[in-house]
Specification:
Blueprint lengths: L1 H65 L13 E11 L9 E11 L2 E8 L2 E10 L4 E4 L3 E2 L4 E11 L4 E8 L5 E10 L4
Antiparallel strand pairs: 1-2, 1-9, 2-3, 3-4, 4-5, 5-7, 6-7, 7-8, 8-9
Length: 191
């Protein structure tokens, strides 16, 4: 009986020591895994910060590159201008060489960009988005849809003097026909 008790006690101690050893191994593995997860989270957080920094640098750079060099027209342009345009070249049926147009142009800017408003009979006929480069003004209109046709108008004013600005307006009509006008702007005496 003493032998049975001794065997039983040995078996219980052996069993507990084995299961205790397994439990300790399991706890060590768990702690090691938790430590690696913390390291991974730390590295992931650093990686996310770097990605955000990279994205902000790229977006700031692309915004900077896409913005015109000057966000406001020079003071000398911010007046009303009389325009005289003469058609010099055309393969469009609704524009004839020699056609003349007279309009009022006004260069404006705000926080959204630079614009040139074109008035005919005191009503806005067209709004151009604009850029002022070192020695020229570039204006573009979005495609316009009217009942009759769809057109795109672009203007390059590359002869800029104090009291006269000259350049070319190109009208691209439906069917990709093109009409080119000479443009001459002079300061308006009307307010």
């Amino acid at each position: 009986m003493a032998l049975n008790r001794l065997l039983f006690l040995t078996f219980v101690l052996f069993f507990f020591s084995c299961s205790n050893k397994k439990e300790q191994d399991l706890i060590l593995r768990e702690n090691s895994l938790l430590e690696r997860e913390k390291q991974f989270e730390h590295k992931q957080a650093e990686y996310d910060k770097l990605l955000k920094l990279k994205d902000s640098l790229f977006s700031a750079e692309s915004i900077k590159d896409s913005l015109p060099k000057n966000q406001q027209w020079p003071d000398s342009l911010q007046i009303k201008w009389n325009s005289k345009m003469i058609c010099r070249e055309s393969n469009c049926s609704n524009y004839v060489i020699g056609d003349q147009r007279i309009e009022i142009w006004e260069f404006t800017s705000d926080s959204t960009g630079m614009y040139a408003n074109v008035f005919s009979n005191k009503e806005i006929k067209r709004v151009f988005t604009g850029r002022y480069l070192e020695n020229k003004i570039v204006l573009d209109s979005a495609k316009e849809t009217s009942v009759k046709n769809k057109i795109k108008v672009s203007v390059v004013l590359d002869d800029i003097k104090k009291n006269i600005i000259k350049g070319t307006q190109t009208v691209t009509g439906q069917d990709n026909c093109i009409a080119k006008f000479s443009v001459e702007l002079t300061p308006s005496t009307k307010k």
